[in-house]
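Students often ask why we bother encoding 3D structure as a string. The short answer is that it lets us treat folding as translation between two languages. Here is a chain of 187 residues written in the first language.
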Amino acid sequence: MKKNNKVKKIMEVLQIAQLGNNILRCQAKPVINIWHENLQQIIDNLIATVIATNGVGIAAPQVLMNDRLFIIASRPNLRYPQAPKMGPKAIINPRLISHSEDREKGWEACLSVPGMRGLVPRYRVINVEYTNREGKLEKQELTGFVARIFQHEYDHLEGLVFLDRVESTRDLMTEDEYQKQIIQLRN
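And here it is in the second language, the structure alphabet:
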């Protein structure tokens, strides 16, 4: 009888660094060896974490790893009911190549800044390149909400959080108040 040498992966939900943790203010380091044996497990754990926390994206610094890596996992959920649906995508060593001149304000939240939302201006259209989890260089034009997620997560790699992009404290509200207002708009 032939042995099955495949080991079943166990996906782990990781601890989220909270605002005030120094790692959130550091510039992340490039991933040098995308073929490192642990990278695929880290990607799987990031995906498990973003899904378990109802996020639409998560960056490695948010789980105490100083690597230029993030996940985009847009889908409708409790925190973002209008999010477009797409499968989780690993973004390794991303670069923002170009962007539109026009920006649009939109409400953002962050797993590392619980309980708050901010109205953040972001570019509507961005052109990016990154390495995917299979090691292939990808170039894409992103628009709308997915472009917003990319820019939000990219900021984490640069040591920024969405609060740094808010233009006024009047553009902040608690998550509870945001949810009340969303419910009122739906009714």
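Translate back mentally: The mean pLDDT is 92. Keep this in mind for the problem set.
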